[in-house]
Amino acid sequence: MKNIRVMIVDSNVTARRQLASLLATKPELEILGSAANPKIALLKIPLLRPDILILDVSDPRTIGVEGLDMIKKNHKNLPIIVFSVGLHKGSMASLDVLFLGADDYVSKPDNEGDKEAMNDAINDLVSKIKAIVVSKKTSPAADQEILPKLMDLKRFHMNKNVDIIVIGASTGGPKVLTNILEKLPENFSVPVLIVQHMLANFTSHFVQSLNRRTKIEVREGVSGAPVNAAHVWIAPGDRHMRLRVEDGEVKIQLDQTMAENSCRPAVDVLFRSCAEIYGANVLGIILTGMGQDGKSGAAKIRQKGGAIFAQDKNSSVVWGMPGLVVKEGLADGVMNPEEITEVLLKDIHQTSKVYGV
């Protein structure tokens, strides 16, 4: 049964038809229609009501990446996967489309006549379409089971001291992290450490892009660096980031020990180490992402008396990581990014003690 409704936006009529033909062979996908550019797409979206949009931004004559921003501003809850040439993992172009609101991306082969490369790209595209849409289409019955609890968790108010904030994110994370971090003041009162699932050499670009948008200083994690307030630390790709105490000072440690949850860096690694050092004064935040990374780390933080926030379903690209934390009963608060930011600014920054272990 076809249950995922797809719309394609591409300036090249041949490419549109080829992509539609290839996707139409997948039994779970229904190709609703297409558009030559984002302006036309904006007219068609209310009529076709797609579950997801596949967008090529590589042709500047059709507005390019500005078209992505335009569609997201008008349809912020419509998932978009960018399917364009040159979006290789670790490239600035791929990071840019994530910052502009794309839920994910797939690099289109340079030679669209290369059948093997195109088939690989289509398989990747279909996998991401299913992961994103299925996450947003979980059964109403499943939601009803936890709805009363979610309503209570929406009204969360931080009533404990927080000495460190640790955040885990995956699919959809760069945009959400940007929205949160760009609102933090330069003198934010506690350190923030982040694991965003990324490959090696990608996080350095991510840090550079964040620093262009934020007041607070963002750095890539470095072994031996002391953990201080008013800094955000991002775990480097292919390195676990954890904390250790050395000569009475909390420092970052990076390593390439075995991947956890098929991830390196892993959220669980960071969360566990923070729980051991800071105990009840840890706030862990699980943002949008696929899989279960963060669940055991969240459990450790809760065991030590710390607090856990989870991003809510409506604002998540994939409600996998945060959804599992909620369903396991580990979340103290379930909120959208704006509500999380409000707690950080009003309940932590303005009331925090001087930073210390």
SSE map:
Elements: E1 4-9, H1 13-24, E2 29-35, H2 38-48, E3 52-55, H3 65-74, E4 80-85, H4 92-99, E5 104-108, H5 115-136, H6 140-154, E6 164-169, H7 173-181, E7 192-196, H8 202-211, E8 217-220, E9 231-234, E10 240-246, E11 249-255, H9 267-278, E12 282-286, H10 295-303, E13 307-311, H11 321-327, E14 333-335, H12 337-349
Parallel strand pairs: 1-2, 1-3, 3-4, 4-5, 6-7, 6-12, 7-9, 8-9, 12-13, 13-14
Antiparallel strand pairs: 10-11
Helix pairs in contact: 2-3, 7-12, 9-10
Describe this structure in words.
The protein has 12 helices and 14 strands. It is α/β, with parallel strands linked by helices and 357 residues long. The chain has 2 domains: 133 residues, Response regulator (Rossmann fold, 3-Layer(aba) Sandwich), CATH 3.40.50; 208 residues, Rossmann fold. The strands form 3 sheets. Strands 8-9-7-6-12-13-14 form a 7-stranded parallel sheet, with helices on both faces. α2 runs parallel beside α3 and α7 packs parallel to α12. The longest helix is centred in the middle third of the chain and has 22 residues. It is elongated and about 65 Å long. The N and C termini lie far apart (56 Å).
**Structure class:** alpha/beta
Tell the overall outline.
elongated
Number of helices: 12
Distance, first to last CA = 56 Å
Percentage beta strand: 15-25%
Order of helices and strands: EHEHEHEHEHHEHEHEEEEHEHEHEH
Main β-sheet: number of strands, strand sense, barrel status?
7 strands, parallel
The appropriate CATH architecture of the largest domain is 3-Layer(aba) Sandwich
Number of folding domains? 2
CATH class of the largest domain: Alpha Beta
With strands numbered from the N-terminus, the spatial order across the biggest sheet is 8-9-7-6-12-13-14
CATH topology of the largest domain: Rossmann fold
| Topology, number of strands | 14
- Cα-atom radius of gyration: 21 Å
What are the segments in which pLDDT stays under 50 over at least 5 consecutive residues? 353-357
Q: Let me know the CATH homologous superfamily of the largest domain.
A: Methylesterase CheB, C-terminal domain
Helix content range: 25-40%
Mean pLDDT: 88
